[in-house]
Amino acid sequence: xxxxxxxxxxxxxxxxxxxxxxxxxxxxxxxxxxxxxxxxxxxxxxxxxxxxxxxxxxxxxxxxxxxxxxxxxxxxxxxxxxxxxxxxxxxxxxxxxxxxxxxxxxxxxxxxxxxxxxxxxxxxxxxxxxxxxxxxxxxxxxxxxxxxxxxxxxxxxxxxxxxxxxxxxxxxxxxxxxxxxxxxxxxxxxxxxxxxxxxxxxxxxxxxxxxxxxxxxxxxxxxxxxxxxxxxxxxxxxxxxxxxxxxxxxxxxxxxxxxxxxxxxxxxxxxxxxxxxxxxxxxxxxxxxxxxxxxxxxxxxxxxxxxxxxxxxxxxxxxxxxxxxxxxxxxxxxxxxxxxxxxxxxxxxxxxxxxxxxxxxxxxxxxxxxxxxxxxxxxxxxxxxxxxxxxxxxxxxxxxxxxxxxxxxxxxxxxxxxxxxxxxxxxxxxxxxxxxxxxxxxxxxxxxxxxxxxxxxxxxxxxxxxxxxxxxxxxxxxxxxxxxxxxxxxxxxxxxxxxxxxxxxxxxxxxxxxxxxxxxxxxxxxxxxxxxxxxxxxxxxxxxxxxxxxxxxxxxxxxxxxxxxxxxxxxxxxxxxxxxxx
Length: 582
What we know:
The chain is built from 18 helices and 17 strands. The chain has 582 residues and is α/β, with parallel strands linked by helices.
């Protein structure tokens, strides 16, 4: 692209044509404050706090949405600009509840941070609060519209990034408010509980349903044998809550922290990810070689499952019947582990720590989530919730010595850990599918074509002369185009363009989940992703079928992949759900 020259606060800078003033300023180390802006989203210029002056222009321009032009001389900070920005903050605070101590974003709120930076100690405007009800109808995420600052991030995420359209602005002027579409409750709306609205909200207007007190209560209750599992993506993000760099691998420290909190058994969802691969991979090989419905589509993302059951019911036959790793481990904990440990399932309490708010919905999505005879996973909490529990327990997370998981359901391969990134489920499945088809192991287990942040990735894999066409999509807004390609081929009587498809609802996969530490950008997602691949590369075993505990659980308990017992415990079904409930 063409380069242009301009000045920012007297500093010459050369940027590509089309670069915004905001990004140009970053290149010379100048921070322009923002509140509505997020790098994932198209600039909306709603808040007005990023205003700057340009020599020769009578008006201030909004830096987030204004492209730099050749020869521009920009002033980003002077007394008048600072006064305007302070006024914007004061007006925003006049309509915002002053209950920071009770807010889940206290200490990690963008509005609070800016107010502190601008030294705001009182607000010279009349308080204009509205008595708007809190919506906690989904059980996964909570809306508190009274705290909404009308930045528009949540609606942009829901409509543009995720293509769900569960949130919108209703009303005009002072009566404008963020609400579920059609002004119904969130549970009655098209919401898929992905939590990306909460991940992008700069304040406490949308947040996860905090269930940590229920976890503490279960640990306190001596009659309960409390079991916990941690998802792949949690280990590369939890450190951010304690001032560490994104992507730092904290697996051993997590095990240690969970033991100190008081859990009786520490397991790893990576183990059940390996189990998922044996079931899902075997299912794919069966479909592929015996003429089953293709493409097979992955089913371990509950937000994607919810989306499919609402928006793409024509693909129900294509969905893998394999449960997610979270649900598989719950079922194994309350059957196999309970049997081995001589513990009754009714006396167990299984908690999962997930990067995802939709996992709270998944634990009782349908009857098959109770394959053990009881609800297999009792509670699912997010990475953010676990971080709070660690702090509540007085644990110095940074200094913890590494410990190991309990071996019965804790050992995992590198394939299990890459479930946490986009393309990871596909890559893990291909590593084992190759073996299941050829009875030989791959020399190189890395499938680079399915890695990366491109919205839709497609490739053709050669399995000893057998061509397997695959596709990977992440971020729900990309998925419909992929589905339409398959629909078009079917309508034209053509062969399916793909045999196997992976979908993850969140950008980057689970590392960018709606329950991860706030502030995720593509730069942070890249670091978390690198941490996941580091965990894979340092693993002694990198294929799910090489996990000795997986071999043992089939030999001692399940029989073989896709057996009758495996179907009862590890598989599920799907049904059409109304986009708007009545």
